[in-house]
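User: Here's a chain of 213 residues. Predict its fold as tokens.
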Amino acid sequence: MQTALVSFWYVILIAGFAVQSVWMVLTRIGREQYIRSITSFQKPSSPSGRYYGWHLSRPRNAAIEGALLDVVLVLLVFYLALALADIYAIIPILPILFLVLLLSSIVPFQTASRIGGLAAIERKLYDNVSASADKVGQTRVIIENLLSPAQIPDGRYWFALFRIALREDPVGWSVRDVLMEKARDLDLLAERVRRGERVPLKSTDTRPGAEIE
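Assistant: Prediction complete.
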């Protein structure tokens, strides 16, 4: 009986690991397709890209995603119990199952926190440009300071700018025009990031809009 219980537990561990691995791979594929789309100034068209866009649209969506994953894991455990043993086989491992579910819920809430931070940056950049009479000029100031060698490349700001560029309003059009104008500089920045180049954190530029953090 003890041997059967241990074998059942290993089956659950392997199945749970497989579910989480598949979820992580699908999320990575969606992220790559989403980034490829927005950096081409297009809204995601693939199902995985649109799903990743939904994932980023609100912090609570990441929490919902984590809760759904936990539900899938619980249903999988019950299915395996019925298929390989009986429902009573779950009782001895319930404390461990609850611990696993608790630990697996930490990552979605951390992700939700990061999405909230990204949304705050996007809102700050949008408001910065929206408040300016010369939206193209203000966008150019922001981007030039992000491109400055005195700044550590921060992907969150670029991610937010490309998201704003998809909006069909004066702010979105202005951001899109300047990003297209700075395409060569962005390629050079991407090369700096690939080389892992490290530079001082804060810009020494004192022009209006130089510090956006």
